[in-house]
Write a structure and sequence with these properties.
single chain, Cytochrome Bc1 Complex, Chain D, domain 2
Length: 631
């Protein structure tokens, strides 16, 4: 080798390294787009697309069939709102210290950054464009932002994890979807709710109860005439043991219809068919004429198009028939507890064929449909895992009726990304009733329900566990019946999805779960413990909580009888759970009987088997709880 060749070699090596890094960056998922939110400019025939993992907003021109502009955000966009004059785009950026970016669409510049809460999403503009409402998911409140002063006016507390909101056409009432149930899981009606805010005084004026078992409440949409609000969600049948899947025995998937004027639930219809589940309903929208309500199904990669008038008329007739046969119109239903005190006595949430012949169920081109937008007769659906759009022409829903539009290069799935997709994919499940994400929504977290699984007998339901760090904290399951999370994942596929899948798929799901990262607690103050939590840290040690909840993950990986067992589990030992993200995994104890950490300490530990806490004052209990909730 001569001297010239020797001098060139480092440059060649560097070029090879750079090419390798570029390729690996693409394969590692750095170039995934993950479209999750759509808002349309119908006049200009443009779609604004929140590209979650790409941390940008793209402008897709329909006539050109391509992205014509991008706005980089350096944060994950979680919601979009377009001003009435189409001059401003409001983008919520998901982070513990959340922000709303205001983009001037004429100049393409970010002209304002508005402060918001923990993980802001679903921004909604008032009709006069003077006020912006933002759902602060993990602060459990709604920010009210005055757009003339660019300041937050107030925060309105709601129940739990607000993820979507819709404003009545006159701007008077804001309907807010709370993602999962709040309160204890072992009694009463366990369901996520819709909070209704009077925007005149910025207060919650009522809470609409949805059917028992409502969880993973996603988007909400108010019909163009302002008469009804439509909310998509899972309707879990958690009151029965998980012995079969047929006819929606474990999970069904639903659309709840709310009467806006009375602010009560009109009824809930199932989106499934008798032998074919429509898992994980997500986005909801109406055509401009109000004739159709459309729902995306994130688990089955489908779109439901429902004839509104036919559905409403069928519900009214059903109510009239029941009134005639039962002689009453209100009260709790008699069909297994799936009604609520505010609904008509209706068996409709059990009718798997209710939408037969009035709903068209369209298979989409991509994977992981999330948002939808409707322009004219075309419905555009954003597909999270394939970085694509499917266009459905509502006037041509027979035969070939879908068009695929790619938003970027076809993504090359890493094992982790593939595992995430499979975790949300109900095609793995027998008859497609649910996916892993149905019971572990919100990024493999909890649904706040108790389930009577078959791994430790019948008649002893257990609360759903957070899967964060599951692979680092063996054994798995509350009673430690699985040696590790790998075994638990395989058992879940076999006994909950009622399927047998190739090992490479299961390995991918393992990799996805291993990749989960904790979200910083909303109880932290400037990323540090509050004064109360600092006092609680000392009490944590003094009360010997750290004898079991030890180390960085706050678990000794052992099983203990801490005196919280009851019924068939009275003398059972329970696995020590990690306390990381305890703030988002309520309710507590194995059967979810404790709605709060304070209840765990003050009510369910009178004999001091679960730490020495019986002599703590009310203030000390609050401080200890604040420390636990700060993890």
């Amino acid at each position: 080798m001569n001297e010239k060749q020797t001098k060139l070699r480092p440059g060649i090596i560097m070029l090879i390294v750079m090419l390798s890094l570029t390729t690996n960056a693409s394969l590692s998922g750095q170039n995934y787009l993950s479209p999750s939110v759509l808002v349309s400019d119908k006049q200009a025939e443009q779609l604004y697309i929140a590209q979650t993992t790409a941390k940008r907003v793209d402008v897709f021109n329909i006539a050109a069939g391509k992205v014509i502009k991008s706005y980089s955000l350096l944060a994950e966009p979680s919601g979009l709102a377009l001003s009435a004059d189409k001059s401003r785009l409001y983008v919520t950026c998901a982070a513990p210290k959340g922000q709303v970016k205001v983009i001037n669409l004429q100049t393409g510049k970010i002209i304002h950054t508005l402060p918001a809460g923990h993980t802001p999403m679903a921004p909604v503009l008032s009709p006069n464009n003077k006020t912006l409402y933002v759902c602060n998911r993990f602060d459990n409140n709604i920010s009210v932002i005055d757009l003339s002063s660019h300041k937050q006016v107030t925060q309105i507390p709601v129940q739990r994890e607000p993820v979507a909101a819709a404003l009545t056409p006159n701007g008077r009432f804001l309907f807010v979807n709370n993602h999962i149930p709040a309160g204890a899981a072992n009694k009463g009606n366990i369901a996520a709710v819709v909070s209704v805010i009077d925007t005149m005084n910025n207060k919650v004026i009522t809470t609409i109860e949805l059917p028992n078992g409502t969880t993973a409440l996603q988007e909400i949409f108010i019909s163009p005439d302002g008469r009804y609000a439509y909310a998509a969600h899972i309707l879990a049948r958690y009151t029965v043991p998980t012995t079969q899947l047929e006819r929606g025995w474990i999970n069904t998937n639903a659309l709840s219809i709310i009467d806006v004027e009375s602010k009560q639930l009109f009824d809930t219809v199932l989106l499934d068919d008798v032998d074919n589940g429509a898992a994980n309903p997500w986005a909801v929208g109406c055509t401009n004429d109000g004739k159709y309500v459309c729902v995306t199904h994130a688990g089955t990669d489908e779109l439901s198009i429902i004839d509104v008038n036919a559905m409403l008329e069928k519900i009214r007739k059903y109510h009239a028939d029941e009134k005639n046969t039962q002689g009453r119109t209100t009260g709790r239903s008699s069909y297994g507890g799936y009604g609520t005190s505010s609904t008509p006595t209706s068996n409709i949430p059990n009718e798997l064929s209710f939408l037969y012949d009035i709903r068209k169920r369209i298979k989409l081109c991509g994977k992981g449909p999330r948002a939808l937008a409707i322009i004219g007769s075309n419905i555009y659906v954003a597909e999270y895992f394939t970085d694509s759009l499917t266009v459905v022409d509502i006037n041509k829903t027979e035969g070939i009726n879908t068009t695929a539009l790619q938003l970027g290069p076809t993504p090359q799935l890493t094992q982790k990304r593939r595992g995430e997709m499979l975790f949300h994919d109900a095609s793995l499940c027998f008859q497609h009733w649910h996916s892993c994400a149905s019971c572990h929504p919100g990024g493999a977290r909890v649904d706040a329900l108790n389930w009577d699984l078959l791994n430790d007998g019948l008649g002893n339901p257990k609360n759903t566990k957070n899967l964060l760090f599951a692979h680092r904290t063996p054994p798995a399951m509350i009673t430690g019946v699985r040696e590790n999370a790998e075994m638990a994942v395989r058992s879940g596929i076999r006994h909950i999805l009622f399927a047998v899948r190739p090992e490479e798929e299961v390995n991918a799901i393992d990799e996805y779960l291993k990749s989960l990262e904790p979200i910083p607690s909303p109880y932290l103050v400037k990323d540090k413990l509050s004064p109360s939590a600092k006092r609680g840290q000392k009490i944590y040690s003094k009360a010997h909580c750290d004898s079991c909840h030890t180390g960085a993950l706050h678990t000794d990986l052992q099983q203990h009888n801490v005196g919280t067992g009851d019924g068939l589990d009275k003398d059972r030992k329970f696995d020590t759970p990690s306390l990381v993200e305890a703030w988002r995994t309520a309710p507590y104890l194995y059967d979810g009987r404790a709605a709060t950490i304070e209840e765990v300490i003050a009510i369910y530990n009178s004999d001091d088997k679960h730490g020495q806490t019986s002599n703590l004052s009310v203030k000390e209990i609050t401080d200890l709880a604040n420390f636990v909730l700060s993890q």
